[in-house]
Each structure stands twice: as structure tokens, then as C-alpha cells.
Design a protein that fits this description.
By secondary structure, the chain is of the alpha+beta class. Helix content is about 25%, strand content about 40%.
Length: about 90
């Protein structure tokens, strides 16, 4: 199973694809160096397979690399960061 996370700035979201098929996304808004993570959706067919976690990690790793801080408004992303302390330094 090939999982790919990519920024889709035209639609203000990060997407996750599994074997080339769109499996979910997290929408965001940007204000300066702060990215608010607004809403996450994973297609039911991919739930329970780690796709949401892959999306969260890929999104947060990319934002860290680009020098952004995050405001996790989305409950899924908020819980993910709470459970994975290695991302707590990103929280604005």
C-alpha cells in the first residue's frame, strides 16, 4: 500500500492518497507563519488502516520543514498532536 501526502495549496488542503486514490484530506488556513488545521476527513474505505495518521504526520512534517507553526482547530489533529509529543513544539 503506497501512501502519499501532498500539499494542495490551490484548495488550501493537504491530501493523502493510497495507491493513487484520494483517501482523505485536512483543510487549512494560513495567517503569516501560523497554519490553522481546520478539518480532517478520511474516506470510510480507508479508516482503521493508519491513513489518518499518515496524513497527520505528512502534514506536520511538511509544515515543520517549511518553518510554520500550527493551530490545531480540528479535533483529530489536536488529539494526534497530544498523543505524539514530538509535534507539540509546532503548536502556536
Amino acid at each position: 500500500m503506497a501512501i502519499d501526502v501532498a500539499d494542495d495549496p490551490a484548495n488550501m488542503r493537504y491530501t493523502v492518497s493510497v495507491d493513487g486514490q484520494l483517501a482523505g484530506f485536512v483543510t487549512y488556513s494560513k495567517h503569516g507563519d501560523i497554519v490553522t488545521l481546520v478539518h480532517t476527513e478520511i474516506d470510510e474505505a480507508f479508516e482503521g488502516h493508519g491513513v489518518g495518521s499518515s496524513l497527520a504526520r505528512g502534514t506536520l512534517d511538511d509544515l515543520r520543514e517549511r518553518g510554520y507553526r500550527v493551530r490545531p482547530q480540528c479535533p483529530f489533529m489536536r488529539r494526534f498532536i497530544q498523543r505524539h509529543e514530538e509535534y507539540s513544539d509546532l503548536v502556536a
